[in-house]
Write a structure and sequence with these properties.
alpha+beta, GMP Synthetase, Chain A, domain 3
């Protein structure tokens, strides 16, 4: 399931020079989270995260590979600087 998500979103994000660093699907309490961690050369800012989320959301709706209701959490890779 996560590989299908990755393959569906990688190309459109790569066009924006955004790298899909990690994808996970976890349950915390009674909620499921689809966490997508993004990165970009020279870092990624909040506006780019929002733009990427607006690209990812309709793709996830279209491929519909996750049966459970979930919260989409798109974030940037932490930099140890």
């Amino acid at each position: 399931m996560l590989e299908k998500v990755r393959s569906a979103i990688e190309k459109p994000l790569k066009d924006m020079e955004i790298i899909v660093d990690d994808i996970s699907f976890e349950k915390e309490g009674s909620y499921y989270f689809l966490r997508i961690t993004l990165d970009k050369v020279n870092g990624i800012d909040l506006d780019t995260i929002v733009e990427a989320t607006n690209i990812i959301n309709p793709i996830l709706d279209e491929i519909d590979v996750i049966e459970e209701s979930y919260i989409l959490d798109v974030s940037s890779k932490e930099r140890g600087e």
